[in-house]
What we know:
Elements: H1 2-29, E1 48-52, E2 62-66, E3 70-75, E4 84-93, E5 99-107, E6 119-125, E7 131-136, H2 150-156, E8 174-178
Amino acid sequence: MKTNTTKFLYIFFATGLAALLFLAGCELYGKAGDDGNTQGTLPVLLRGEWVYIPPGSSAPSERYIIDENTVQYGYGGGESDTNYKGNIRFVSNYSATSGVIIIEYTESPSYQKYNGNKFFSIYYRNLNSDTVQLANAINADYSSPDTKTLEEAIKKFTRLRMGNYVDWGVVQPQQKVRE
């Protein structure tokens, strides 16, 4: 009997210790409630025209034009190619070189399955004066994760949820071609 009781107590305490260590680790990396966006400002360095030109090509396949109030995005390389436009409604800076921009569409997107919602996000990282990685938030099935309200977008497009919408392994840096 003593052996079963000893085994039980050992397992009980080992499980409790493991649970405490798990909870302590969760605290170290932040709690789910800490995953909120904080209102920031659009970095001055992010303003301008950014393009990605694939190797061996002379035309950009992707273009972002960002000013203090709007974002315009084009995919496909045409000079007048615009897939969406929007007014910047919220910016959260995760660091000096990364964050999220939430826009309200003024022209709806044509490159994905648009669901009719008005608010969308663009994540950015590795920002410097010459290059940045800009990524539209996209669901795994290439549908739009847009939201109906700004409040929903602010709660949805957070730093900890960025991996749900962006695969940074395939996002090529865009070059700044114009201030």
